[in-house]
Every structure is written in structure tokens, then in C-alpha cells.
């Protein structure tokens, strides 16, 4: 399995397209297509961006490490958020809606929710 095979597998697992990867990393779709066609190899800088996007190591992408990097979680606040997502379907629904949103979209949504909560 080569580097782009691993990237493709991560795209599939994360239900992302090459365009999604391009948006999240700032890498052009054309360059990602060149990787797919094996006409160009990703630079170390681009591999780092892809690795950060998927929370894996560059070594994993290069095939030097067999397993994906485990999610290390020592942050109590993050643990609380994860528990909310796990136990409250409505929170999971909000999170899923927000995944593709821009920072500005999220800020607008927060203002709407805050205004709604102040009415009650």
C-alpha cells in the first residue's frame, strides 16, 4: 500500500472527498489528483498537513507505521464534550451539521442559539 492508497483509505473512513481534503488542508485539488495519478509525490510539508487533518503520523502515511495514531485524550473538557456527543443524539446532530461549516457560519449559529436560549 503506497502513500496515496493510505490517503484514499483515510478519505473513505472519514467519508471525505478529495475536495474536502483540499479545503481542510489548503492543498489544491489538482495537486491531490497528481498524487492519485502517481505523477507527483507529496512534499513533506503537504504530508504533514494531510497527517494533521486525519490525526495520523506522517510515518503512517509513508507506510513506516502500520497503525493509525490513537487519539490521546488527557483533556477533561474534551472528554466531557465527547461524552455529550456519545450520549445526546441531538448534540451529535449539531456537531455533524457544523463539521462542514466555516468559522463564520459557526459564529452565526452560536448567536442564533444564544438568542433562542435567552428568550426562555
From TrEMBL:
GO molecular function: DNA binding
Keywords: DNA-binding
InterPro entries: Cro/C1-type_HTH, Lambda_DNA-bd_dom_sf
Keyword Secreted carried by entry: no
SMART domains: HTH_XRE
HTH cro/C1-type domain ranges (all copies): 7-61
Entries under PROSITE patterns matching the protein: HTH_CROC1
Protein name per the record: HTH-type transcriptional regulator Xre
The encoding gene: xre_2
Amino acid at each position: 500500500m503506497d502513500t496515496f492508497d493510505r490517503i484514499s483509505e483515510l478519505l473513505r473512513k472519514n467519508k471525505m472527498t478529495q475536495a474536502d481534503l483540499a479545503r481542510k488542508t489548503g492543498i489544491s485539488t489538482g495537486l491531490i489528483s497528481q498524487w492519485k495519478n502517481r505523477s507527483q509525490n507529496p512534499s513533506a510539508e503537504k504530508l504533514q498537513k494531510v497527517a494533521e487533518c486525519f490525526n495520523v503520523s506522517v510515518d503512517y502515511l509513508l507506510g513506516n507505521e502500520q497503525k493509525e495514531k490513537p487519539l490521546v485524550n488527557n483533556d477533561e473538557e474534551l472528554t466531557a464534550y465527547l461524552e455529550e456527543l456519545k450520549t445526546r443524539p441531538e448534540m451529535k446532530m449539531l456537531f455533524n451539521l457544523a463539521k462542514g461549516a466555516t468559522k463564520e457560519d459557526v459564529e452565526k449559529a452560536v448567536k442564533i442559539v444564544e438568542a433562542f436560549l435567552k428568550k426562555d
